[in-house]
Amino acid sequence: MSPLSAPQPLFSVIAPVLGESGRINGLVDNIRTAGYGLPIEIIIVDGDPGQATLRALTRSGVTGLTSPPGRGRQQNAGAALASGEYLLFLHADTRLPAGAFEAAAALLEGRAELGAFSLAIRSDNVLLRLIAAAATWRSRLFSLPYGDQALFLRRDLFEAMGGFADIPIMEDVELVRALRRAGGRVAVSPRCVTTSARRWRAGGILATSLRNLALLFFFSLGVSPHRLARHYPAMPESPGSPGAADTTAGSRP
C-alpha cells in the first residue's frame, strides 16, 4: 500500500518520555499489540535534547521528536503532529490492555467526550492493589481520571480546548476539570491499564500515596503547580536508561 492510499489513523498515541531507553521498545510493542489490525499512529516525544530515549528506539514506523521537558509541553508537541481522529496519551510506564482502542472508541462514540481506563499496578503487593482499586473508584465517582490511566479524546476537541496547560504537574487534572466545567462527560472503561510500581518503590507506598493526595488537595485550593512541583520528586530511571531521571511519567492515585 502506498503512503497516499494509507488509511487515516483511528488513534494517535502520544507518549512523553525522558530517560526511558530501557522501556521504549516495549512500549511501542505494547501499543501495536493492543491495536493489532487497526490504523494506529505512534508519536514519541523525548524531553531530552540529546534524544537518549529516541536513540534507543529500534522499532520502525514511529514518529519521534523532541521538545522542552515537561509532560504537558511534550504531549502538546506530539498532538500538534497527530493525524488520528482520536488522541490517546500514554505514559511510558503504563501498558494498554487487549482491545484498548476498540473500547476507547466505543466510549467516545457513545457516552463521553473524554475517557480513560481503570487502573492496575504491576505488583503483587496487596496495598498497591488496594490503591489501584481506590484510584479506579475515585475516577469513576468523581469523573477525575489521571494521566496514568491513559486519557483519550477526539483530536478536534483537544485542539478546541487549547491542549494541556503548560504547568509542571497536574496538567492531566486541569484538562479533565476544564472539560467538565464546559459540560463535557467523562467515562472510565472497565478495562485496566497496568502501570509500574517504581515510584511507590522509590518513595515508599504510604508516603507516596499521602503526598499525592496532598498535592491534589492543595492544587484544588489554588496553590500554584509550580510550587507543588517542588514536592514531586523525579521519576526513578528505567532499567538500562543512562540519561536523566524521568519526571514525565508517573502515577498520582
Number of H- or I-type helical stretches: 10
Taking strands numbered 1, 2, ... along the chain, how are they ordered across the largest sheet?
Answer: 3-2-1-4-7-6-8-5
Task: Write the CATH architecture name.
Answer: Alpha-Beta Complex
Fraction of residues in helices?
A: 25-40%
On the 0 to 100 scale, the average pLDDT is 91
Biggest β-sheet: count, sense, barrel?
A: 8 strands, mixed
Number of separate structural domains: 1
> Could you say which structural class the secondary elements and strand pairing correspond to?
alpha/beta
Quantity of strands, as a count = 8
CATH class: Alpha Beta
The portion of residues forming beta strands comes to 15-25%
The dominant shape is globular
Explain how this protein is built.
- The protein has 253 residues and is α/β, with parallel strands linked by helices.
- The protein has a single domain (7-231), classed as Spore Coat Polysaccharide Biosynthesis Protein SpsA, Chain A.
- 38% of the residues lie in helices and 18% in strands.
- The protein has helices at residues 24-34, 52-56, 71-81, 100-109, 126-141, 155-161, 171-181, 198-203, 205-220, 225-228; strands at residues 11-17, 40-46, 63-66, 86-89, 94-95, 114-121, 152-154, 186-195.
- Strands 3-2-1-4-7-6-8-5 form an eight-stranded mixed beta sheet, with helices on both faces.
- Helix 1 (24-34) links the parallel strand 1 and strand 2 (40-46).
- Mean pLDDT is 91; it is low at 240-253.
